[in-house]
Specification:
Largest sheet: 8 strands, mixed
CATH topology of the largest domain: Rossmann fold
Radius of gyration: 19 Å
Structural class: alpha/beta
Strand content: 15-25%
Number of helices: 6
Distance between the termini: 30 Å
Shape: globular
Number of domains: 2
CATH superfamily of the largest domain: Vaccinia Virus protein VP39
CATH architecture of the largest domain: 3-Layer(aba) Sandwich
């Protein structure tokens, strides 16, 4: 697609950095993927989200962004939020999902200031950082649904019909056990982990291990343009 084609649509739903997650894919119906490497199939437009989006203001109904902002510098995230606010119609909304580096299994990387597992993660996102960025944005109303705060996972029910976030305890298959083989592997791994710790393991430590509910968590927040 070209931006001129996007502008003709009504309503306009954008998935920033969406990759293959766009219409007609299930759970991404009507969403247009805005990506520097757009997919060959589905609704998409080639664009670097660090650059202004060539649509008129107050023309977009929904914006979705999952696993994008950690690849940007903080200054670029702030600029992108201002651009999204410009694009959204009044009463439009944006949903953001980013890795939560307050998750106990990931927090060590946050303290080190880098994540060797993901060299392309430029900004290690968490609740404090994202709240600070949002409060300095034009968005006056927002709601956090999933995030870690002071060692506690805050969970509010999400209506995913508004916008899918895959990396959540609700949707990520790594947060639950499937086959008998997977169950056996997790049970054995858990036993060996407890054994090495002298069976002095907290419930929190177990909850973030593979196969347990909080192994994969994202910070999820909706921003509203009133």
């Amino acid at each position: 697609m070209k931006w001129s084609d996007v502008q003709k649509k009504d309503p306009i739903y954008l998935n920033l950095g969406g990759g293959i997650n766009c219409h007609p894919k299930i759970e991404y119906e009507n969403y247009i993927s805005v990506d520097i490497n757009p997919p060959y199939e589905g609704l998409s437009v080639k664009h670097d989200v660090r650059e202004p989006i060539p649509l008129v203001e107050n023309s977009v109904t929904r914006i979705l962004s999952e696993d994008l902002m950690e690849h940007l510098k903080i200054a670029e995230i702030k600029t992108l939020l201002r651009e999204c606010f410009r694009l959204l119609k009044p009463r439009g909304a944006m949903r953001i999902g980013v890795p939560d580096y307050n998750n106990p299994k990931d927090h060590l990387y946050f303290k080190k200031g880098r994540d060797p597992r993901h060299h392309d993660h430029i900004t290690l996102t968490n609740y404090e950082l994202m709240k600070n960025i949002i409060e300095k944005s034009p968005f006056l109303r927002y709601e956090f649904y999933h995030y870690w705060d002071k060692g506690e996972f805050i969970y509010k029910k999400i209506d995913y019909s508004f916008g899918m976030i895959k990396r959540t305890p609700d949707n990520d298959p790594r947060c639950r056990l499937g086959s008998f083989k997977q169950k056996a592997e997790v049970i054995l791994a858990d036993f060996l982990f407890k054994l090495t710790r002298g069976f002095r393991v907290s419930e929190e430590e177990m909850s973030v291990r593979r196969g347990h509910r909080l192994y994969v968590t994202s910070l999820v927040v909706d921003l509203f343009k009133d």
